[in-house]
Amino acid sequence: MTEAAMTPAEADEFRARCRAFLDQHAVGIHLGGDPDPRGEKRLLAAKKFQQALTDAGLAGLTYPRQYGGQGLTNEHEQIWREEYGKYPNMTYELIISHGMCLAMLNEFGTPDQKAAYLADNISARTVWCQMFSEPGAGSDVASLQTKAVRDGDTWVLNGQKVWTTLAHVSDYGVVIARTDPNVVKHAGISMFIVPMDTAGIEVRAIHQIDGGMHFNEVFFTDAPIPVENLLGELNNGWNMTTAMLMYERVAIGSGSAGGVQHEYADQLISEATRRGTIDQPVIRQKLMRLYAMETVQSLVSMRTRAALQAGETPGPGGSIGKLAGTNITSYARDVSMEIVGASGVAWEADAGAVWARAALTGLQSGIAGGTNEIQKNIIGDRVLGLPRDISVDRGVPFKDLTVGTQKD
Questions:
Q1: How far separated are the first and last CA of the chain, in Å rounded?
Q2: Residue 386, exposed/middle/buried by CB under 10 A (0-12, 13-18, 19+)?
Q3: What is the Cα–Cα distance from 140 to 132, expressed in whole angstroms?
Q4: CA count, 13 A, side-chain hemisphere, 178
Q5: Looking at 248, 271, 294, 338, which residue is catalytic?
C-alpha cells in the first residue's frame, strides 16, 4: 500500500516538533572529563534521551503502534533524521540495539516475540547486544563452534563469544549457535534471543588499547534458552546472520542521522583554527579532502536509507558505506595527528588526549562489522559480479572440518 504523502504544512509542523524536542534534549553527552571506559554513562544518557523521545511520541516512528512505535510514514522518519543530524548524537550507544537487533526482531520475529520485545527496545527500557564472533570464528563467522542442543522445552547453549559490545549492560542478546554439525558449516546454524541474566552466562571485560572496556567475552556453560526464543527458522541461521550483518553495515556506514554530514571535518577545522594552523595550505587541502569524503559517504548513506524506507532489506551495497566510513576514520586519524602534533601522543596534554584516544579507538573501525577485506570481497562478488574466492570446504560437513579450535 502506498503511503499518503504529507502536505507541506504537515511536514513543516512535524519538522518544528522535532526541532523543539531536539533543542531541549539533544544537548550533548557531558562526562566532566571522565573517559567512561565501560560506556555506562554514555548509555545512561542515551536511554534518558530515548525515553524522553518515547514520551514525546517520536520514538520508533515507522514501527507499528501495537509494538510500541508511532505508525507514521517514511517521510516522518526522513524529516526526523534530517533534523537530528544537526544536533549532537545522543544515541550512539544504542546503535546495536536499534540499528541491528530491533530491525531483526521486526523483520523475523513472531507476533509473540514482537509483542514481548519491540516496545521496550524502541524506548530503550531494554538494551540489546549481538553475539557472533568467536576466538576461532571472526571473519569466517560460519565456522562458529558455540552449540545449542535441544533438551525438551529448552535449548542448552555451550561455547564462547568475543568482542561483544556492551554485553555487560545489555538486557538481551541475539546469538547464533550451531544446531546441526552434520551438515555444511553454513547450513547448521540457528539464531536465538538470549536474556543476559540467564544462569550459565558469564561476561568478562576486554581491556582495550584506548583505555576503554566496552568489548566483552561472553561464556555459555549449559545456559538454558526457551524454545520460543528461536528467532527465525531452525537451521536457517546463516541467512539470518547475513541479514543482521547487512543491517549492521548500514547502521555503521550510514549512522543515525539524515542529510549531508561532515562531523570529522567540522571538528578538525575547529581544532586547526584553535591551534592556529588553519591557514597552512597542506592542512587546508587535507581538511577539504576529508570534507569531500564525508559528503560523498553521506550521499551514499542517503540512498541506502531511502531503500530501507522503501521496505527493502539491506543488501551488499551496505558494505560500500561501511568501507567508506572506515577509510574516512583512518584518514581523519592521520589528519588529526598532523594538526595536534606532539600532544597527540600524550595522554595528559591539553586536548591532545582526546585526539589520542580517538586515534586509537578508530582502529576498530576496520574490524567491527566485518574487516575491510571482507567488505571488499562482498563488494567485488555481490555488487560488481567478480569471481568469488576459492572455497576449500564446500560440501564438507562441519564436524569433519578442522577450523578454529576444533581438532581432529
A1: 55
A2: exposed
A3: 10
A4: 24
A5: 248
Joined grid coordinates for residue 338: 598532523
The reply to whether 271 belongs to the active site is: no
Q: What is the pLDDT of residues 172-197, one digit of tens each?
A: 999 999 999 999 999 999 999 999 99
Strands (E), 208-350: 215-226, 230-231
Closest CA to 37 of 262, 213, 219: 213
Count of positions (residues) in the chain: 408
Judge if pTM exceeds 0.90. no
Per-residue pLDDT tens over the stretch 332-355: 999 999 998 877 776 555 556 778
Q: How is the chain split among helix, strand and coil, in percent rounded to 5?
A: 50, 15, 35
Task: Please give the grid coordinates belonging to residue 45.
Answer: 544518557
Cα–Cα distance for residue pair 268/282, rounded to 1 Å = 14
Spatial CB neighbours of 306, under 8 Å, sequence gap ≥ 6: none
Give me the domains of the chain, ranges plus CATH numbers.
8-126 (1.10.540.10), 130-235 (2.40.110.10), 241-383 (1.20.140.10)
d(CA 100, CA 250): 9
